[in-house]
Amino acid sequence: MTEEDLTTPSGRPARAGEGLREHEVRAALLDLLAEVGTLTATEAAARLGYSSGLCSFHLRQLARHGRIEEAPHNGGRARPWRLCRPAPAATGGPSAEGFGDLARGLEDESWQRWLSRRDQAPPEWRRDEAFSAVAYLTPEELSRVAETIRRALAPYRDREQRPLARPADAAPVALITRLFPLLPHTAKEADQPGGADDSA
């Protein structure tokens, strides 16, 4: 990775912890590729506001994971990329299910990186607020809880596009919420080791 890969859109050196935003950069690149078809790192940087080095690095990572591929071109230094699978004509973009799987994979990748490198972060950042809970909700209540979380995060969402709005000590933090109903185990799953609680 070059020095340019380690700079933010404003050009300053990246602070510790900014690897947490990697899934956001890659998701933005995939979304842009779905919109325009093919693009180079330079074109992506102009559209998204990141450095060309950062875009180039993440485009190569997406290619390594089989999500994108080099598009045909006439030589030269420009290296255009495209999605490996054509976008469905009905939606004009990647399938919601496929994109969701990719987003979850990138979230998990960032989480594992955090766990393995947490001791390298500045002391004030060596903790996280990860938690989980089970609540009995109706479908309507589930929607209301999700909307409450979205409203709580709304005041901070525009800081991605407005670097000057960020406090001096702010760093990118992954905000991941997954609300889903817990399905009962099938008889087949219950027969498998660890498939159900045997303590009773």
Automatic annotation (TrEMBL):
It holds the Pfam family HTH_20. Coiled coil: none annotated. SUPFAM superfamilies: Winged helix' DNA-binding domain. It comes from the Bacteria. InterPro entries: ArsR-like_HTH (IPR011991), WH-like_DNA-bd_sf (IPR036388), WH_DNA-bd_sf (IPR036390). Residues 1-20 are annotated as: Disordered. This is Helix-turn-helix domain-containing protein.
